[in-house]
Amino acid sequence: MAGKNEPSLENHQERVPMRMTSMRLELLSRHRIRDPGLGLNEPSGLTLNADGSALYTVSDDTKAIFRLDLKGRVSVSDSFFIALDDLEGIALRGNDSELLVVQERSNSVVVMDLSSRRERYRRPLSAMTNYDTIAHHFPDPPDNNGLEGITVNTRNNHVVVVKERQPGLLIELDSTLTTILSTRVLQASQGFIHPELKAEKLDFSGLSYDSSSDTLWIVSDKGRCLFQYDWAGDTVLQRLDLTISTGDKPKQIRKPEGVAIDPGRKRIYVVSDRDADLYVFKLHDDC
Prior knowledge:
By secondary structure, the protein is mainly beta. It contains no helices and 22 strands.
């Protein structure tokens, strides 16, 4: 995902044939994380720390950042309030020294120092170099289809954010958050399709960078699924439904809005905005 496409920010290159892979998800555990006393009611973003021992999430109705263990238990001492609302996505970087959060209303990326729990700076997309190439996708005043997720490409330290819909849009930013390097409109021609949804209804609510394959895992709220997307080939490798067994027949997770992957352990963590549950999946390679 290096910025080799900088000269053409809206990419309409010849499509590479889809390299479909075959994987499946096994649900390992499900944990209730809702805590009205702390304000953790609608988890909407998720990120995993560097050693894979803890998760961070935000709740879009509360001005706070929450740290969870892998069983969804909130660490009160490591969670904290901040002077920001309408938070939708979260990512760690810099050896876990910085938290990046996205605010949908302002379409901004906010950088927090984790040790001091203070805001370092914030960058609205509109203030970044090359914003004019994507400004037509962001109405003024903003609608409710702005930035929803954020992740960090650990190979080059670029930051990637995702716009929810109309259209779904991946935006690659440099590490200083001052320049838009490249963008991708997410559409059916790349494989962003769902058997039960029309293309215009499909949304994108979170993403996580997979360092083992140099791909992105993108979660869809309305699709209740994950897409594994290959940036280099500009193609979806696979779509995996987010299902859970309830004793009768499998059910799909309601309003999945945050995803975090642990490539080394082949674990995928997903949070549900509707039910405030954390789901832990194992990713299996099917040969």
